[in-house]
Amino acid sequence: MNDIPKPRPSGEVVLAARNVAKTYGAVNALKGVNFDIHRGQVTTLFGENGAGKSTLMKILSGVIQPTSGEILLDGAPIIFDNATHARARGISIIHQELSLAPNLSVRDNIFMGREIRTPLGVDFATETAQARALMQELEQDIDPATPVGALRLGQQQIVEIARALSVDSRILIMDEPTSALSASEVEVLFKVIRDLTAKGVSIVYISHHLEEALQITHHAVVLRDGTMTAYAPRAEIDLNWIVRNMVGENYDLGAPPVVTFGPTALTVESLTLPGAGFNLVDNLSLTVAQGEIVCIYGLMGAGRTELLETIAGRLTPSKGRILLQGREMGGLSIAERIAAGLALVPEDRQRDGLVQTMSVGQNLSLASILNFTRGLFTSTRAEAAIIDSSIRQVTVKTSGPGAPIGSLSGGNQQKVVIGKMLATGPRVLLLDEPSRGIDIGAKAEVFRLLAEGARQGLAVVYSTSEVGECLSIAHRIIVMRKGRIVAEFGPETTKEEIMAASGEAKAA
Amino acid sequence: MSQKSQISLGRLLLEARAFLALIVIIAVFSWLSPNYFTVSNFLVMASHVAIYGILAVGMLLVILTGGIDLSVGSVLAFCGVMAGAMMQGIELGAQVFYLPVWGVVVLTLAIGGLIGAVNGILVAFFRVPAFVATLGVMYVARGLGLLQTNGLTYNNLAGKAELGNTGFDWLGFNRIEGVPISVIVLVILAVIFAVTLARSAFGRWLYATGGNARAADLSGVPVNFVLLAVYTLSGVLAAVAGLVLSSQLTSAGPTAGSTYELTAIAAVVVGGAALSGGRGTVQGTMLGAFVIGFLADGLVIVGVSPYWQTVFTGAVIVLAVLLNSLGNGPARGR
Q1: Residue in A352, A376, A380 closest to B214 by CB
Q2: B204 contacts in A (CB within 8 Å)?
Q3: Which residues of B touch A403 (CB under 8 A)?
Q4: What is the enclosing helix (H) or strand (E) of A2?
Q5: How many Cβ pairs closer than 8 A exist between chain A and B?
Q6: What's A7's DSSP letter?
Q7: Please, which residues have CB within 8 angstroms of residue B93's CB and are 6 or more apart in sequence?
Q8: In chain B, where does DSSP find H-type helix?
Q9: What does CATH list as the number for A13-247?
Q10: Is B215 on the interface with A (CB under 8 A)?
Q11: What is the chain A residue with the closest CA to B204?
Q12: Which of A91, A198, A287, B310 has its C-alpha lying 20 to 30 A from B62's C-alpha?
């Protein structure tokens, strides 16, 4: 592709990626990305989930190796064997998922793996003093002897940041460092970032909070589907520019199918799922008609997964009712709900969707196995027929039903999970982030499949964290925030409206 | 058939490996001893394998779900002791009841199933790690067996004709068409469970639970029921092995069957099953049991020191699993 902008020279480039690509099996996480980090400046990486931001950062920090392409450190090619090697060259990363040992103290976590040693063992006194100094710099009143597990999530994130600061890095990569921080903690972090850049430290920053990131960044880079789609210095951009480049406008995920809605398929009445200190799902009510497609949008932690898993019977609500075509579902097991016609396609297909030790065919038939059991035994012929029609219905590209499930690409694996649940003949199909980690082509096919189901009277509820996917096949868009429905839109709404309602970004 | 054979070629080679080991063992010992390669010797060896083989079938079910059952050796002994006790008569007040042998057998199997169910409840509903739950039950069952007999052994299992409870030795001594009953029992059980695993919904649930319990749960597989069932079945099969063993020995002692659980695990593993669950077959496990059994008996027949026997058995186990993991690794594409 030749319309991708190249990074423009501005200041001294300390670390650069040249045409870096990474593939996982058949999935292309990164497709040839160029990326520059400037001395003493903040470069922010924008992109939706699955755009490849975290993959790129893991490559730059030596956690994983690129499939192709090269990394330049101070202009010279370098291959990082592992994260320790990269850290020795002055590159540290603060991971999105905290990598702390909760059983160890703040001090021990900060110095984990590079303890200050004397001939008599670890020099705990010096470590404690340094840890205390770091906490003061971050304006935190945390005793270095406190076990990390006893801290709030936000404080744990501070410890993670302190650990990265303690190694005197030249380049500091921060993957969503503020996701659990309060506003005042973010202020402190930004102050620390400004101090660091003044000292010549280069920062790479990733955040979903676009406005927040715009406050401190010098450069913006946008990734979409593993490719760099835009690059610009701070002075030339605004929020709309980011959103426009993040979501893209040139792909079509279909339009809401023209369907006459049938009677009510799913009724959720004041459903509440308690969490630690607050409700993950908070007094939520929702009705979906046969043939209707409903999209649930929300940020991480908005309660989408919890809502869908509660409806499917994985989690037990403290309050509220779930009715399928008027029939009470409360107290029924997952198997009984599937039999009644209520099926869930889970978010994490590796963890919750597929049995890796089984073949494509066995995965497809797993949920509907009782339908082709005659007496004590399964009917091989009936099973083969179900698998065959499923493979054709959801258009799985596979060498055959006996192929190992791991041989499929992410998109085809996802189709297997969907096909498995469709084979149970559901009336209501719940899908949690059905497009996660699959490429655009597969996304379009998945949505076409759902639209086709709706035409035949299937009620579809899917969740997504990519706003572009709300404006595709959904008849109705619901925005969730903190376990509640905060807004409802028709298909003619705009991305900006949806994002504003979710609390992600106010339309500029 | 052509497309199917292509798919299972890898698995075939894997099972063929255990098969190859078995052939090598038979060839080597036949060359070393003229008595080894005879029908009568094979039948005797097979009746020894039967005990481990029956335990290994139960162990396979548990291992397929990703668990382990360390209690089978103790359950075997406890069930043997309970059968022995029932053969001595059950005292109720002043009266002593004598059950017919089939009654003793049914009750013994029930006891085995009950202990297995305790394992299953601990694992499925209380989320106790299988290793810990069955380790505890292993000690408890062993202790109960010792308590029951005060550490002694029941020697008088023959029963009396006038009490109508003769025939306990049938399982261990009788033959049909020259084949020991214990071997027939093993074959029947192996066939039943091989078909169950390959062709029933329950079998598929088992593989799915071991392969990915969360995905199985969300697909409507009754995971807790599956777990409860496999541990219960393992207990029942341990009781069957206990009956066969005490019948073969015409005595029931509380110290019988110690470390048998390890032999059963070895048979399952040599047979190509993955300890992480989701992979393995009854056919493979049977091969594993025969490899271990034929090796041990062969070493006895050639007169190798029992200390060396232990060394050889251990080496074969590690070697077989090493070959399996070499074959499994790249094919799985991880």
Answers
A1: A352
A2: 362, 365-366, 369, 378
A3: 7
A4: none
A5: 94
A6: P
A7: none
A8: 2-7, 9-32, 39-64, 72-87, 101-124, 130-149, 170-173, 181-199, 201-211, 213-218, 223-249, 260-270, 282-302, 306-332
A9: 3.40.50.300
A10: yes
A11: A366
A12: B310
Tokens of A421: 């649940």
Q: φ, ψ for residue A337 (rounded to 5)?
A: -70, -40
Q: Measured between alpha carbons, how far is residue B294 from residues A381, B136, B231, B313 in Å?
A: 39, 31, 28, 10
The answer to whether B195 contacts A377, with C-beta atoms less than 8 Å apart, is: yes
Looking at chain A, how many residues does it have? 508
CB count in 10 Å sphere of residue A311? 24
What is the complex's ipTM, to 2 decimals? Answer: 0.82
Listing DSSP states for A92-132 in one string gives EEE-SS----TTSBHHHHHTTTS--EETTEE-HHHHHHHHH
Q: Which residues contact A102 (CB under 8 A, 6 or more apart)?
A: A147, A148, A149
Question: Does A251-341+428-508 match A13-247 at the fold level?
Answer: yes
Query: Are A324 and A337 spatial neighbours (Cβ–Cβ below 8 Å)?
Result: yes
* pTM given for the model: 0.78
A397: its two tokens: 């590209």
The alpha-carbon radius of gyration of chain B (Å, integer) is 20
* Residues contacting A462, CB < 8 A, separation 6+: A293, A294, A295, A296, A430, A431, A432, A433, A434, A450, A474
Query: How close are the terminal C-alpha atoms of chain B, in Å?
Result: 28
Q: Which of A437, A440, A464 is nearest to A52 (CA)?
A: A437
Q: Does residue B139 contact residue B77 with C-beta atoms inside 8 Å? A: no
Closest CA to A307 of A279, A278, A277, A276: A279
Q: Residues B187, B276: contact at Cβ < 8 Å?
A: no
User: Which residues have C-beta within 8 Å of that of residue A211, sequence separation ≥ 6?
Assistant: A239, A505, A506
Q: Is B177 helix (H, G, I), strand (E, B) or coil?
A: coil
Domain ranges in chain A are 13-247, 251-341+428-508, 359-425
Contact in structure between A443 and A261 (CB atoms under 8 Å) = no
Q: Which residues pair with A18 in a beta bridge?
A: A70
Taking CB atoms and an 8 Å limit, are A402 and B4 in contact across chains? Answer: yes
Per-residue pLDDT in tens (0 to 9) along chain A, 508 residues: 344 444 444 568 889 999 999 887 666 788 888 888 999 999 999 887 667 888 888 899 888 889 899 999 988 898 888 888 888 888 988 877 778 888 999 999 998 888 888 888 888 999 999 999 999 988 888 899 999 988 887 788 888 888 888 888 889 999 888 777 777 788 888 988 998 898 889 999 988 777 788 889 999 998 887 888 888 888 888 877 887 787 665 556 778 888 899 999 999 999 999 987 788 899 999 999 999 999 999 877 788 999 999 999 999 999 999 999 999 998 899 999 999 999 999 988 888 999 999 999 999 999 999 888 888 888 888 899 989 999 988 888 888 888 889 878 778 899 999 999 999 999 999 999 888 767 667 788 889 899 999 999 999 999 987 787 888 889 999 999 889 999 999 988 888 888 888 776 543 3
| Optimal mutation site among A344, A355, A376, interface B, most CBs of chain B within 10 A | A355
User: What does the block give as tokens for A489?
Assistant: 């839109």
Q: Looking at the complex, report in whole angstroms how far the Cα of residue B202 sits from the nearest Cα belonging to chain A.
A: 9
Would you identify the CATH topology of the domain A251-341+428-508? Rossmann fold (3.40.50)
* pLDDT at position B6: 46
| Residue B72: closest CA among B243, B226, B239 | B239
Per-residue DSSP letter, A472: S
Which residue would you say has higher pLDDT here, B107 or A349? B107
Verify whether the Cβ–Cβ distance B207 to A362 is below 8 Å. yes
